[in-house]
Design a protein that fits this description.
This protein is an all-alpha fold.
């Protein structure tokens, strides 16, 4: 499994997709943070600060897409045949991709949240904003990192299950931007278990007053979703022709 993960990480380092998505994640979050700080003069309460810091979790959507592209990309480019020749065990092949995307999302998250903290915290302090406690601030930032890492892992499992790269990306976007809001509107208590609700819970954002799961529980539920998708991907991969 270690060699499989190492080979997947090597693909990240030598392909433009990973670096493009990583750069986009850092640039997007910093742009939002800087514009918010520069334009919003009323940003001073603790809730405002929490909301600003939780913006770092937005990059989780990009790591989710990264995972989908990685998991399904093997089939699109035909490299899955070579992967399975080297690693015939389907669980290791899929699991290696999932773990590598987790680590890739983790690395991007560390950079994004570090940049957010370096830019936002001194700026907020200079404006005499009411800051959350050091523990709460750290929890928001670490939760955002965890969210991005888990999003990458889930995306890889889902991409391996669907296999069609374009279809997998479209389905993920529809789930997040269409299905999740509909579920929240119809079944408010179920909203905390959607991908959007879990992401907000982990990144420390505000869900417009709707109930959210604790960070640890949300991470566990997300991990269970990932494990289920991974298991399904392994089963279907072993039954399909490559």
């Amino acid at each position: 499994m270690t060699r499989t993960v190492a080979s997947e990480l090597l693909k990240f380092r030598t392909t433009r997709t990973f670096w493009a998505l990583a750069g986009s994640a850092v640039g997007l979050v910093l742009l939002i943070v800087v514009l918010t700080l520069a334009i919003d003069d009323g940003l001073s309460s603790e809730n405002d600060v929490r909301s600003l810091l939780s913006n770092a979790g937005i990059y989780g959507l990009l790591t989710l897409i990264l995972g989908v592209v990685t998991g399904a990309g093997e089939y699109r480019h035909g490299t899955i045949a070579w992967t399975l020749l080297v690693t015939p065990n389907r669980l290791r092949a899929v699991g290696g991709s999932v773990i590598a995307c987790f680590l890739g999302g983790l690395a991007i998250g560390v950079v994004v949240c570090t940049c957010t903290a370096v830019v936002a915290l001194p700026w907020l302090s200079a404006r005499d904003a009411v800051m959350p406690s050091a523990g709460d601030t750290l929890q928001i930032l670490l939760g955002g990192i965890l969210y991005g890492a888990l999003a990458g892992a889930l995306g890889a499992a889902f991409g391996a299950l669907v296999r069609n790269q374009v279809a997998a990306v479209v389905i993920v976007l529809v789930l997040i931007f269409v299905v999740d809001p509909v579920i929240v509107g119809l079944f408010e208590d179920v909203g905390q278990f959607t991908l959007t609700g879990l992401g907000i819970a982990m990144s420390g954002g505000d869900n417009d007053g709707s109930e959210l799961l604790p960070l640890g529980v949300a991470a566990l539920v997300w991990a269970l979703y990932t494990a289920l998708l991974t298991a399904l991907a392994v089963v279907f991969t072993s039954r399909r022709d490559i």
